[in-house]
Amino acid sequence: MVLVVSFALRRRALHFLRRSIHIVAINDPNSFPFMWIKGIRDIFSGLVMLPFLLNGNRKVTAILFAIAIFVPFCDGLVIIAHSGFAAPLLIHWGTALYMIIVAAFLLKK
Q1: Statement: the pTM of the whole predicted model exceeds 0.70
Q2: How many CB atoms lie within 10 A of CB 62?
Q3: What is the mean predicted confidence (pLDDT) over 23-33?
Q4: Cα(62)–Cα(68) distance, rounded to whole angstroms?
Q5: Residue 86 within any structural domain of the chain
């Protein structure tokens, strides 16, 4: 019985994901600015924290990491505004939740 319910839930989840994931066409020249912006933002976010992480300054790293939670959270708000509660929302807000947990561990001694 549990196996049947598990299979049914997986099938329903896959159907939901297929309907709600919007893929950016990489070959489309109109999507290049979007890809550049995302790439630059992600690289910059990592480079800002890297010196503090390498120096072992956990408190500053945790604070910067906590401030950076703003990015995936706002990405989720953009998804809600344009697509409603779609699957990519879970990715962005799941990332924000993960970042909260990591920041909490960094603040612990």
Answers
A1: no
A2: 20
A3: 67
A4: 10
A5: yes
